[in-house]
Amino acid sequence: MNKSTIWALLAVAVLAGSGGYLIARRAPASAPAAPSRSTAEDLGTAHRAATGTIGASLQASAKGKVVTVQPGASIQAAVAAALPGDTVQVLPGTYHETVYIDKDDVALVGVVRGGDWPVLDGEGKRNDAVLYSGNGIRVENLKIVNYKGNAIMGQAGNNFVVRHNWIANAGVYGIFPEFAQNGLIEYNTLTGIEDAAIYVGMSDNIHVAHNEVFGNVAGIEIENSRHAIVEHNLAYDNAGGILAFITPGLPIKTTFDVIIRDNFVIANNHKNFGAPGSIVSGVPSGTGIIIMAADDVFIENNVIRDNKNAGIIVADHKSFANITPDPESDPNPDRVSVLRNLFANNGYEPIKEIRALMVAGMTNQGPDLVAVGGGSGNCVADKTALKTLGLGSWASGCPKSSTAGTLTYLLDQPAPPRALNADNRGKLIYSSVCAGCHAYNVRMIGPPTQVIQAMYAGNAQGIADYIANPVKKREDFPAMPPQGHLSPELRLAVAKYMLSVTQARPAVTP
Ligand code: HEC
Questions:
Q1: Whole-model pTM over 0.70
Q2: Mind listing the pLDDT tens digit for each residue in 58-101?
Q3: CB neighbour list of residue 91: distance below 8 Å, 6 or more residues apart
Q4: Which of the following CATH numbers is that of domain 425-500: 2.60.120.430, 1.10.760.10, 3.30.540.10, 3.90.1010.10?
Q5: For burial by CB atoms within 10 Å, which of 109, 185, 225, 311 has the most?
Q6: Å from CA of 497 to ligand 1 middle
Q7: Residues β-bridged to residue 97
Q8: Pocket test for ligand 1, best of 202, 433, 437 (most atoms within 8 A of CB)
Q9: How high is the pLDDT of residue 61?
């Protein structure tokens, strides 16, 4: 059958309205117990205690003084006064602001006392709760609610720790390190996010562990990133639980060396409330794990059950809705190893494209594992144990039977900061800020870069002015968050870079 149509219809099935109403009715998560730390002394050791032997290169913060923020005071003012090595300690209370951290080695740590949290409340009108561009940043113990953009976004900040945050209804991305190296995301709980709750974008050496994600469009997404481990997480009631993707049209073109293990991936049957037309809106509700075009992925020791569409989908770019393949990316998932996992009760109500595959395969069982499109070197440890579809070219039995030898991909030493100079700064800002929402020729959150290039040809200053103070233009897109935190020079540099972005043309096939 024509596999290229398999996902083509999925976009149609997507919920048309915005997720706001849906989310607003959703009660906030009950928080996992967070240790309450009322003294400053133990803040510096907290990280070591929680992670044991991994993450030794992420210990730098909290060697300086402690700046305390009282309820009613400004967190941003305390951050402005902090020096590298300092800890900004936020006492319980409600704060209405966006916090920008543009210096290195600052820990932003909430104090939870008797169940009272420091709450950053965007009141449905602010875009981001915490935006950092420094290296060695730690963000911990914050409750973040009612933002429109991101809860915690890192922009080219290396050696970060984001831990113990409670995030509900906070926009399109929850925890979003973009263009980062060496970072740890652990013990967070996230719900009500319109794209990916934990979104690792164009990053390297990332560890995502012990998080709870539910009621989001995508739970955890590793996108255009390498050397990432996703382990011991609980992903339930999202439209899609855990994703490893290559999104086409971004400055970094690969995803490989991803380990997804020891997670609970349960009943990810939530309606997909992603923005219509966006890539994430093409995720079929009811899917536990999706691997799209990523290479060298291991899926091991997960409990994958009650996902109504399929336990695992492995797909190439052609088979996915809303995707224009990138000639600079390999569209196929290669060397994906599905090792031992517990599968139960998946695929009991598959989308009609999967039902068509079932008919073609003469089975009435929805799949634990389905492969669509191209890909080579893929394998499944025990093919006969699972309900599978489309595994024609997959090997039964895998060359490597366990990932236990790989404890973490975090670095032993901190990664050096990304150098920002006159030559590369436009590209750096584009990669770390704009590419979270703009890809070259596919729709992410904002319109494709190609469309913007056509509108603003030769007018970089026009872009620089727009992004400082964006006005709402398109009915079917959200508003773009202002980028006034970038200096006029950086705005112009990124605008020029945006106008210069190109992508190789596809090879002409006769
Ligand atoms: C959080 C997502 C997001 C980020 C980050 C983002 N944008 Fe946008 N951008 C959007 C959306 C959404 C629109 C469409 C807004 C509308 O039509 O009202 C948009 C529209 C635009 C436009 C079109 C303006 C017009 O006249 O139609 C330009 C130019 C632009 N963005 C540039 C940038 C640049 C440069 C950056 C990085 C510094 C950036 N954007 C970062 C979401 C984002």
A1: yes
A2: 865 567 999 999 999 999 999 999 999 999 999 999 999 999 99
A3: 68, 69, 70, 71, 111, 113, 118
A4: 1.10.760.10
A5: 311
A6: 14
A7: none
A8: 437
A9: 54
